[in-house]
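Q: I have two molecules that I believe assemble together. Could you output structure tokens for the complex as a whole instead of separate predictions?
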Amino acid sequence: MTLRQAQGPGQAQGPSTALLTDRYELTMIDAALRDGTADRPCVFELFGRRLPGARRFGVVAGTGRLLEALRDFRFGDDELRYLRDNGVVSAQTLSFLEGYRFAGTIRGYREGELYFPGSPILTVEGSFAEAVILETIALSILNHDSAIANAAARMSIAAGDRPLSEMGSRRAAEHSAVAAARAAYIAGFGATSNLEAGRTWGIPTMGTAAHAWTLLHDTEEEAFRSQVEALGAQTTLLIDTYDIRTGVETAVRVAGTSLGGVRIDSGDLPTVAAEVRAQLDRLGATGTRITVTSDLDEFAIAALAASPVDAYGVGTSVVTGSGAPTAGMVYKLVARQDAAGGWVAVAKASTDKASTGGRKAAFRTLEHGTATSELIAVSDGFESIDTPAEHPDARPLQVTLVDHGEADPAFAGPAGVAQARAHHARVREELPITALALSRSDPALPTVYVDAAR
Amino acid sequence: MTLRQAQGPGQAQGPSTALLTDRYELTMIDAALRDGTADRPCVFELFGRRLPGARRFGVVAGTGRLLEALRDFRFGDDELRYLRDNGVVSAQTLSFLEGYRFAGTIRGYREGELYFPGSPILTVEGSFAEAVILETIALSILNHDSAIANAAARMSIAAGDRPLSEMGSRRAAEHSAVAAARAAYIAGFGATSNLEAGRTWGIPTMGTAAHAWTLLHDTEEEAFRSQVEALGAQTTLLIDTYDIRTGVETAVRVAGTSLGGVRIDSGDLPTVAAEVRAQLDRLGATGTRITVTSDLDEFAIAALAASPVDAYGVGTSVVTGSGAPTAGMVYKLVARQDAAGGWVAVAKASTDKASTGGRKAAFRTLEHGTATSELIAVSDGFESIDTPAEHPDARPLQVTLVDHGEADPAFAGPAGVAQARAHHARVREELPITALALSRSDPALPTVYVDAAR
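A: Yes, here they are, computed for all two components at once.
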């Protein structure tokens, strides 16, 4: 019987995630178990030194996925055999790993929350061994998902009230595609083409037809007729396989003026969209919607604001973070107990990668509902950190995600995604107007460090 | 009993990959089953219109992973229930999907092979329904893995004989990280930090220690001493947590002059590497190797060619494709039978996304062992395509990957990875010297289309 099977239902539910880990985490545990430091109480922090792509705000995403990965982070027979057969760690460490289950506490930003340079997105408290081992899995998930959410939020801002669909699965690795659909949905997209994202995370799925559909048939008209017969006149017809003008005419002739929509996937979109809209209107199809899908990013979407476009489908740019494919967050030891049991704030000294030691809590200060700063209270001890007295109305940004090993189920599964999406929409309303510009700039809010009240 | 369990051993081995698919593939099948075109014999082609990042060559990677995904591409009870409950497709289509198993033929470039614009990287032959459904999974895997392999190959060229390790898992989504380690290894990296990549694909794993290791201890000396005691003097010590000069001195004092290596993760690397080398030599540690790991990409590696660096560790840039995170390949219908059973070459007409219709085979012409062109023979029928008579020595680039549903096991698993790595090293030797430059440019080889011999 494997360790995983022994946990019973309600515990691990998927394949083990434990080897999605950099080797050095295990060799550090190996050495720490020998020298007695493995048990030292530690505080690790996950944060970004800067925002991806010199943007004005960051968006936290992946938290719910991390909690599920943590649930499945167990070393079963297969994982232990690989480590033993390859001499990665000693027998003592194998024994530690066999019994490993994260029993510490993780506080962090809600999924969908905004963040800024230095924001303590996760604060992981536990022994050195139990906390250091989560470095790779935590960073992998949050760096990827937050990068996507950041790009998606900018596109969502640029799109305004027009619906956005994510359809970039083919331009992302197959499992990243599912995570990307999820992150984009949290950050304001309304649907995805990815069926697994629909099944796993409850995200609405959508789709039209490919050029292959038209090319499969002997004529465009046959292809349209078949699609309308199968899916109804409310379907969306792809009109640019051959000549767009002919495509529109054929579409309306076949489907009637109640045709749901047409999709344009090529050409100079502002020009083409205007022409197609005029042609549809002339043909009486005034209610037929225009979806555009050709290599859109936040800038192209913004440039279409005055065009008669009803919906956007975004592929490559959202799943690759629109130029910033990783959020660049890091996972650092910021405090630990010393041999005498006192707390020590620690930080690397290198000038180009400096960080701020000490356990932290974060608050967003607001004036008349608009955010004014990211307030980070730094403690040199381990007591709980209160809202700074000078800012009694500041909004606390961290919640307890995992309490002594028990993950809060509210953040998991489709319900967690829905909650994160709602939270993101809410907190985005707090941003100052300057934060909504798309150009590269400094963060929209200053990060202010204060000493935690004693 | 689920469909998957019913297949018996040797068939599906992992979770179903069938929903890693865009919804429109299934709705097209829905409509095609109604109108009778679902069974039309078709040829789909996976190719890139251009090379990622205006580079001089592309590298095919992911093929072995695709074959494994194909093995697990089945619609079991869970997948069918999701589709039924969400009204994605009709009952007729659910029934088709329940029995789905790809029974067609896939010819394609070997994994590790170079490619150029228009190269027919995969040629997928089957009925419309059985072939169109593979669009997303095939593109997801090849677009991601080839983008990583392309960046990795350039880094490998820049590094010359110095070993390269991939350590970017934390900057990629957790499963992409494993695929990235695999692609980088195929393209010339020697090791990865990712343990799952070691387990699944047989890639050598490596690791040193994090700054957290030093910060955990009361002094740097204690950290170094503990690491050397646990891992031996051949270990690599991270020397830049505090002052580098002191770090080097402490490292040699603790480990002796037989210290295996030091790692530098910050600072101006050419300057710092030279200083560290001089200091190590003064201290008598002339055999101690220097590994550098701070935000390297192919350009930074090239800039260190004259520096006393012994090994490179590359993170973010390799797992994100160094500015080109997706290869931008597409999957297009290029030929099909018409109602009368004749073959028709098809292609989208849009001027900005045009492609070449017809079934193809590809050959690399060589002169004195150096590649001179990517020769693509285009057929308007379905007979096998011979090497063009004018180029009898041209190297055929496609092999049969899947023959009537049966994947060639030689391309799967760790053995497939080893073979791909060897193949890549071999074919890279054929590149003209101009192809090795790192600057943006045109493809190193022209793509030449010829009519297939009749």
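A: One point stands out. The domain at 159-321 of chain B is CATH 3.20.20.70 (TIM Barrel).
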